[in-house]
Amino acid sequence: MEVAWHPLCGGEERLLVSLKPEDEDTVVLEKPADNGEDPGSRHCRELLPRILAAAPEAVLLVVTDPPDPLADLARVLAKHDRVLSTGTWVDSLRFQTHLASIFQVHPTSVEAQILGEHGTSEVFVWSGVRIGGVPLKQVVSARGVSLEKLREGIERDVRYANIAIIEGNEASQYGIGMVSARIAEVVLRDERAVLPVGSYSKRFGVTLSLPSVLGRGGVRETFQPELAPEEEKLLARGAETLRKAAARAGASAG
Predict the structure, then answer these.
(1) Fewer CB near the last or first residue (10 Å), C or N of the chain?
(2) CA 194 to CA 223: how far, in whole Å?
């Protein structure tokens, strides 16, 4: 896969596209934030007609914050469902990494997902956490760890990871950049990997993250994991938050 940043409109606007002329599989849109009113929505409306003219069959991956409402807007404008957001995958990776550090295991030995919104209403699926296939409650009990303190600390660190990263190295684009590149790779290679990326959910009436089978053409199927009752409530509440955000972005009207 060959990719490069291409300037648009002669400014700092950038579009990540495949360099291969025969490839119209994936278009990744990332725009620098500015101080204008609702810049994400405006940029989406400005750029999508040109993207669709150049690559009408492409899968569209929205990276710019807030990715889920802007993916809903892109879906309305594009008039198709081949629209993704980076969703909660980067959050889920941070969740796994923090758990791995605490229990001193490799992150690939940790099963942990965050679902719903990439934002403050994201849902940590604690009921599904496994360390080497062993339920988290069993692991913390054996080690004498307080689950409540563990949850409080990890949720705080993951929710505000961007702030800590920016304070540390004055940049937070590397993590989301790697996630975006990997999503593009999964689509182009038709890997059918199951990832927590954002796509439109008929059940919730909005774009949010669920475990999703991702391949050529975008999300092929989503799974609804078994959640604890409180997690179900939080997911429904987060979906309502996203529906309001999508409406503010103009997704309902297109």
Answers:
(1) C
(2) 9
Give the fold, CATH level 3, of 90-238.
L-2-Hydroxyisocaproate Dehydrogenase; Chain A, domain 2 (3.90.110)
Is 43 labeled as catalytic in the residue annotation?
A: no
Q: What is the tens place of the pLDDT at every residue in 81-107?
A: 999 999 999 999 999 999 999 999 999
Tokens at 54, concatenated: 């150049």
Q: Name the strand (E) or helix (H) holding 30.
A: strand 26-30
- d(CA 83, CA 32) in angstroms, rounded, equals 20
Residue 103 to residue 101: CA distance in whole angstroms = 6
Instruction: Say which of 6, 43, 98, 118 is annotated catalytic.
Output: 118
| pTM of the entire predicted model | 0.83
Distance in Å from the first CA to the final CA of the chain:
32
Domain range list for the chain: 3-85, 90-238
Query: Of 24, 13, 72, 33, whose CA–CA distance to 166 is shortest?
Result: 33
